[in-house]
C-alpha cells in the first residue's frame, strides 16, 4: 500500500505541471495587460512599461513559466496583482467555505441518492423506479447555474424564505448546497441502482432467499454492503469534483469560496491567483481520489491485495 501511495504522489507531479502549463499559456495569450489593470486606464505608458519590467512580463513566455515553476517548488506562488497579498493566504482563507459547501452538498446527495437507488433497484420497472430514473436524468441534465437561478427566483425573490447571496447564517448554505447536491444525487442514484441490480442477481443472494432470509435482511445485510463498493468511489469523486468544481455555483450565490476567487481573478487577469487556485484545486482533487482508492482497498480486501503487489 505504501508503494502504491508513493507512486500516486509521483504521478501528481506531471499532472500539476501539465495543468499549470495549460493555464499559464491561456492566461498569457488572452487579451489584457496586468500592469495596465493594476495602474488603471489613465496611467501613462512609461509607468506601465516600467511595471511590466519589474513584474517580469517583458520576458519570453517560457522564461516566465520556468520562473513560476521554480518559485512554486519553493512554495512561493507570488502575490495577487490586485490585493498585493500572498495568493495562498487568500486561498486558505476561503477554502473552509468551499469545504463546508461541498460537504453539505455531498451529504444531501448521499441522503437522496443511496436510498432512492436502493428502492429503485428492489422495485425495478415499477412506477417508483420510472419516476426516480426520470428525476435522475433531469438532475444530471440541468446545469448548476440554471438550477441555482431558478431556486433564487422561487425561494428568495418569490417566497422570500431564504437568502441568495453571501454566507451570513446557516440558511445561506441551503440553496447553494441543494444546487450542488442535485447533480451529484442523480449520479449516485444511478450508480446505486445499477450496482444493486448487479448484486441482487448473484447466486449467493438467491441462496439467502432460498434459506428463508427476509427480503429486508437480504437487501440490507447481504446485497447493500457489496453494492456500495463502487458507490463509495462515485461519492468520493463527486466530493472532489464539488471541492474543485463549485465555481459557477459560488459565483451565482456570491459564496465566498475558492471558486468565486478564481472567477474574480480570471476577470482581472490576476495570473498568480489563477495559477495558485488551479494548482490547489487539482491537488485537492488528486488527494481526494487517493483517499477514495485507499478506502476502496480497505472495503474490498481483493483490491488491497492488488495494491500490495
TrEMBL record:
Cellular-component GO terms for this entry: plasma membrane
Gene3D superfamilies associated with the record: MetI-like
Pfam families: BPD_transp_1, BPD_transp_1_N
Key word Lipid biosynthesis present: no
Location of the ABC transmembrane type-1 domain: 95-296
Any one GO molecular function term: nickel cation transmembrane transporter activity
Keywords recorded for this protein, A-Z: Cell membrane, Ion transport, Membrane, Nickel, Nickel transport, Transmembrane, Transmembrane helix, Transport
InterPro entries: BPD_transp_1_N, MetI-like, MetI-like_sf, Opp2B
Membrane topology according to the record: Multi-pass membrane protein
Principal subcellular localisation of the protein: membrane
Compartments, record wording: Cell membrane
Transmembrane feature ranges: 9-29, 99-122, 134-161, 173-192, 227-253, 273-299
Family of this protein: Belongs to the binding-protein-dependent transport system permease family. OppBC subfamily.
NCBIfam families noted in UniProt: Opp2B (NF045470)
Subunit structure: The complex is composed of two ATP-binding proteins (NikD and NikE), two transmembrane proteins (NikB and NikC) and a solute-binding protein (NikA).
Stated name of the protein: Nickel import system permease protein NikB
Species of provenance: Paramaledivibacter caminithermalis (strain DSM 15212 / CIP 107654 / DViRD3)
Amino acid at each position: 500500500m505504501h508503494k502504491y501511495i508513493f507512486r500516486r504522489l509521483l504521478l501528481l507531479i506531471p499532472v500539476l505541471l501539465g495543468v499549470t502549463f495549460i493555464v499559464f499559456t491561456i492566461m498569457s495569450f488572452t487579451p489584457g495587460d496586468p500592469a495596465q489593470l493594476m495602474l488603471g486606464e489613465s496611467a501613462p505608458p512609461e509607468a506601465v512599461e516600467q511595471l511590466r519590467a519589474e513584474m517580469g512580463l517583458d520576458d519570453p513566455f517560457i522564461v516566465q513559466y520556468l520562473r513560476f515553476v521554480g518559485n512554486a517548488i519553493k512554495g512561493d506562488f507570488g502575490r495577487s496583482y490586485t490585493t498585493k497579498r500572498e495568493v495562498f493566504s487568500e486561498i486558505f482563507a476561503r477554502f473552509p467555505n468551499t469545504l463546508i459547501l461541498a460537504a453539505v452538498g455531498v451529504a444531501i446527495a448521499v441522503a437522496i441518492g443511496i436510498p432512492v437507488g436502493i428502492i429503485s433497484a428492489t422495485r425495478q420497472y415499477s412506477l417508483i423506479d420510472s419516476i426516480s430514473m426520470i428525476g435522475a436524468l433531469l438532475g444530471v441534465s440541468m446545469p448548476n447555474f440554471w438550477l441555482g437561478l431558478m431556486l433564487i427566483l422561487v425561494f428568495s425573490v418569490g417566497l422570500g424564505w431564504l437568502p441568495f447571496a453571501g454566507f451570513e447564517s446557516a440558511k445561506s448554505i441551503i440553496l447553494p448546497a441543494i444546487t450542488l447536491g442535485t447533480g451529484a444525487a442523480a449520479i449516485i442514484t444511478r450508480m446505486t441502482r445499477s450496482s444493486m441490480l448487479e448484486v441482487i442477481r448473484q447466486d449467493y443472494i438467491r441462496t439467502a432467499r432460498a434459506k428463508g432470509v427476509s427480503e429486508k435482511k437480504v437487501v440490507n445485510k447481504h446485497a447493500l454492503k457489496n453494492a456500495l463498493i463502487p458507490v463509495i468511489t462515485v461519492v468520493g469523486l463527486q466530493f472532489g469534483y464539488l471541492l474543485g468544481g463549485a465555481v459557477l455555483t459560488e459565483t451565482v450565490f456570491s459564496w465566498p469560496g475558492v471558486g468565486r476567487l478564481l472567477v474574480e481573478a480570471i476577470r482581472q487577469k490576476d495570473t498568480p491567483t489563477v495559477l495558485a487556485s488551479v494548482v490547489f484545486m487539482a491537488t485537492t482533487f488528486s488527494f481526494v481520489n487517493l483517499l477514495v482508492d485507499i478506502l476502496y482497498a480497505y472495503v474490498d480486501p481483493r483490491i488491497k491485495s492488488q495494491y500490495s503487489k
